[in-house]
Recover the amino acids of this structure.
């Protein structure tokens, strides 16, 4: 949130459609709202079998929200769901204040947090793609009337101009991202030639990835107790004794219902994840929703094509969860999970040991593959 900006008084709205994680999802919306610079004054909930086509929540619940806006002098209403352009328009007309959905809220946080040139390009691209769907649908009533009295020419022309300008900007941003992706690919090829083992930190937002990254690499990446503190990938090299040099990358956190256009736009940043040799899946061990969060992260990894990469579960925040540092192996004696506290440094020696072991296993498998290939050539 920019300094000196007054907090916007917000009402949060959540509808329970019978999914198990409703309470955790609402708690997350509150954190997201605060991260964006809003002050969630109250939360209004309801139960429905399916969304109302016009107002998402139905007219009775919409009137309840309107009363809360009047009583508490509310500036903005934030829905814990994706609203259609028509629903958003109808709600704003009915409530007389700004209405945004979960997608717009996350996009807004990303816009505030992006620091690097690449991050800014990715956020702008995602925002424009989101805006484009609203713009096109928002003007369809003019298209249907094909002009008509008072609507001839300018209305349609304006729409066409807006679409063309948006299209051109999106095209330019995509070209710029492509260029950045090529630069990343060149850097990765150089790393590959040097056989540097690459590790990517992944995990739910606010699981403690940046704190762990800073502790492991002695870096000063921005780390805060808020959602999406990190948007830009940062990489550092660390030395792990016999395992040699390892490159560790910190990446953007994942979240449930992460907007698709964000996953698409951030593909360049997430490339580091796709091409890693090992994923350190950092879990907030003190969160009651940790199992659902692990599931959400794995879903996003699948979406970006990184679900085939070996994972090591890093159970973080053991100090808050009342657990001891430990290293857990599976039935094949492979390290499966490490219990640590990135904040206190407890268990980090075990994590370094686990990364080094995985790096040596990887080097051995590469050597076996090389020998096998040379045997084939000699036959």
């Amino acid at each position: 949130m920019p300094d000196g900006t007054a907090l916007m008084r917000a009402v949060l709205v959540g509808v329970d459609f019978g999914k198990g994680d409703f309470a955790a999802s609402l708690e997350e919306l509150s954190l997201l709202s605060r991260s964006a610079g809003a002050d969630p004054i109250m939360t209004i909930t309801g139960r429905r079998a399916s969304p109302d086509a016009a107002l998402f929540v139905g007219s009775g619940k919409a009137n309840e929200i309107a009363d809360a806006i009047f009583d508490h002098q509310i500036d903005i209403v934030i829905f814990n769901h994706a609203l259609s352009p028509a629903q958003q328009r109808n709600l704003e007309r009915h409530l007389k204040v700004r209405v945004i959905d979960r997608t717009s809220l996350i996009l807004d946080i990303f816009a505030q947090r992006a620091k690097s040139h690449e991050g800014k390009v990715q956020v702008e691209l995602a925002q424009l793609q989101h805006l484009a769907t609203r713009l096109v649908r928002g003007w369809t009533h003019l298209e249907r009337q094909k002009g008509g009295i008072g609507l001839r020419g300018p209305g349609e022309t304006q729409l066409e101009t807006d679409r063309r300008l948006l299209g051109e900007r999106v095209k330019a941003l995509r070209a710029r991202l492509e260029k950045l992706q090529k630069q990343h690919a060149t850097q990765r090829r150089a790393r590959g030639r040097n056989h540097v083992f690459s590790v990517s930190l992944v995990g739910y937002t606010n699981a403690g990835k940046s704190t762990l990254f800073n502790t492991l690499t002695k870096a000063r990446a921005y780390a805060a107790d808020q959602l999406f503190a990190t948007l830009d990938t940062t990489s550092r090299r660390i030395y792990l004794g016999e395992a040699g040099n390892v490159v560790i990358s910190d990446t953007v956190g994942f979240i449930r219902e992460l907007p698709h256009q964000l996953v698409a736009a951030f593909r360049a940043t997430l490339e580091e994840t796709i091409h890693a040799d090992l994923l350190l899946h950092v879990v907030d061990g003190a969160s009651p929703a940790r199992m659902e969060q692990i599931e959400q992260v794995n879903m996003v990894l699948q979406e970006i094509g990184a679900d085939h990469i070996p994972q090591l579960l890093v159970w973080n925040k053991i100090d808050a969860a009342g657990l001891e540092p430990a290293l857990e192996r599976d039935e094949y004696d492979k390290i499966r999970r490490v219990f640590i506290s990135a904040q206190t440094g407890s268990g980090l020696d075990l994590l370094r040991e686990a990364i080094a072991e995985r790096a040596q296993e990887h080097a051995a498998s590469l050597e076996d593959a090389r020998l096998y290939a040379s045997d084939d050539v000699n036959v």
In short: Residues 350 and 375 are 37 Å apart (CA to CA). The chain is about 50% helix and 20% strand. Confidence is low (pLDDT under 50) at residues 137-155. The two ends are 65 Å apart (CA to CA).
